Amino acid sequence: ANGGLIISDDLGSKAVRDFYSLGGDSFSPRLVARDAFLAGNDLLYLGNLAADQLDDPYQAALRILDAFAQDIVMIPCLPSWWMRQSHGFSRRNFVYIRI
């Protein structure tokens, strides 16, 4: 929005853990980070983001970054015709990540 930076809240917070654990699913730091990124955050606060209490948050962050680096494909943020016509964007301005 107007050239600003969007920063996520703590993705390892209890509220986020509870939300992603609904229905008995196991908590997936990679899924949380991916969803936060696709929601439009430019910077992700990975703070205490770990799979469980025995998991090291630093190692979890490295696994998330590794997964992002390995799963790269092109996904346009907005319809390409609209970006080219309205904002002069080209293919270089697309977000690259596999979902």
Give structural notes.
This protein is an alpha+beta fold and 99 residues long. It has a domain of 64 residues. It is 39% helix and 11% strand. The protein is built from 4 helices and 4 strands. The strands form 2 sheets. Strands 1-2 form a two-stranded parallel ribbon. A two-stranded antiparallel ribbon has the order 3-4. Helix 2 crosses helix 3. It is globular. The C terminus is likely disordered.
Overview features:
11% strand; alpha+beta; 99 residues; 39% helix
In short:
This protein is of the alpha+beta class and 99 residues long. It has four helices and four strands; from the N terminus they run βααβαβαβ. 39% of the residues lie in helices and 11% in strands.
Q: How much of the residues is beta strand, in percent?
A: 5-15%
Encode the helix/strand succession as letters: EHHEHEHE
The strand line-up of the biggest sheet is 1-2
In DSSP terms (H or I, runs of 4 or more residues), the helix count works out at 4
Structural class determined from secondary elements: alpha+beta
Helix content: 25-40%
Architecture blueprint of SSEs:
Elements: E1 7-10, H1 14-20, H2 29-38, E2 43-45, H3 57-70, E3 74-75, H4 80-87, E4 95-96
